[in-house]
Design goal:
303 residues; alpha/beta; TIM Barrel; eight-stranded parallel barrel; 10 strands; globular; Xylose isomerase-like TIM barrel domain-containing protein; Xyl_isomerase-like_sf
Length: 303
């Protein structure tokens, strides 16, 4: 008797302001939020993330009306944290998290994407703190992240998914495994960003197969390996690397997304797979055609 093939339809595909070159709440180089909503819907996506807090309307009634009339739903909000600095930053962290968590919950979403702070400035490359955490900082990072997961769940009914990210302390295979091994699976899940993980040398399929129960969310993107090699050689920070086009339109880069999606489907759990092609800054007419092509490509992968 053969085993049933996992259904890919438990993977819900969406996109995010990031794929429209949006990194900040307000920036003249970014498309207006109404244009983003219009185009993401027209490109064939049903789910979106909130993006940087303040970009989309912060009034839940307004945002619910604007998304509903375009047939869109919200999958997650995003917060930035520096939890390796320990209890001293908790109050500041919670002040940042609370408003975003409240809006996320009001929009019917269940996930909060948590991005660690950068160890170097993502524009200038100025080193802000050591690249490697001390053992004490690792303990603070894991303990405070568990605290965040508990508080967010109890107060807002949300599940945190921590996003390994270039130029942060949760980046490589070694550091991601260390983080997962030291945190409670009941409180902390992972947002696997295929592009960032490849950028930092990781294998997304291997991670899914090894830590499948910890994968709570996906960001889909690819890296141009030729550009990445130059970025590494030149020791570029992430912002200028994006400016060089290190994150590219699928299926031109790595990792191959079809095996990633197949491995994710084999988990047989409900997962969001949100397209994020970092493109800040970009011409306003550039994102939409890419978004349409990417949605067609993902359909060819079965999602």
């Amino acid at each position: 008797m053969t085993s049933p093939v996992p259904s890919p339809h438990r993977i819900r595909v969406g996109s995010a302001p990031d794929s429209w070159g949006v990194w900040f709440p307000d920036d003249p180089l970014q498309v207006p939020w109404r244009r983003f909503l219009d185009e993401v819907a027209e490109a064939g996506y049903e789910w979106i993330e909130l993006g940087p807090h303040g970009y989309l309307p912060g009034d839940p009634a307004v945002l619910a009306r604007e998304t509903a009339r375009r047939g869109l739903k919200v999958s997650a909000g995003t917060v930035f944290t520096s939890l390796h600095h320990g209890p001293a930053v908790w109050e500041k962290t919670w002040a940042h998290v609370a408003d975003i968590a409240a809006l996320t919950r009001a929009m019917g979403a269940e996930h909060l994407v948590v991005i660690p702070s950068f160890w170097r400035d993502d524009k200038t490359g100025r080193v802000l703190e050591p690249r490697t955490l001390t053992p004490a900082q690792w303990r603070d990072l894991t303990v405070q992240t568990e605290r965040l997961g508990r508080e967010v769940r109890e107060r807002y009914g949300l599940r945190i998914v921590v996003h390994p990210h270039a130029d942060t302390h949760i980046d490589s295979e070694e550091n991601v495994a260390r983080f997962l091994d030291a945190t409670d699976p009941g409180l902390v899940s992972l947002c696997l960003d295929t592009g960032h993980y490849a950028y930092c040398g990781g294998d997304s399929v291997k991670l899914i197969e090894t830590y499948g129960e910890r994968i709570g969310y996906l960001h889909l993107k690819q890296v141009d390996p030729a550009v990445l090699a130059r970025v590494v050689a030149d020791e570029l920070p992430f912002g200028p690397a994006v400016g060089r086009g290190v994150m590219c339109e699928p299926p031109a880069g790595v990792p191959d997304l079809e095996p990633v999606l197949k491995a994710a489907a084999a988990l047989n759990v409900d997962l969001f797979a949100i397209v994020e092609q970092d493109m800040y800054p970009c011409p306003p007419e550039k994102p939409f055609p890419i978004a349409e092509r990417t949605r067609r490509f993902l359909r060819s992968c079965g999602v």
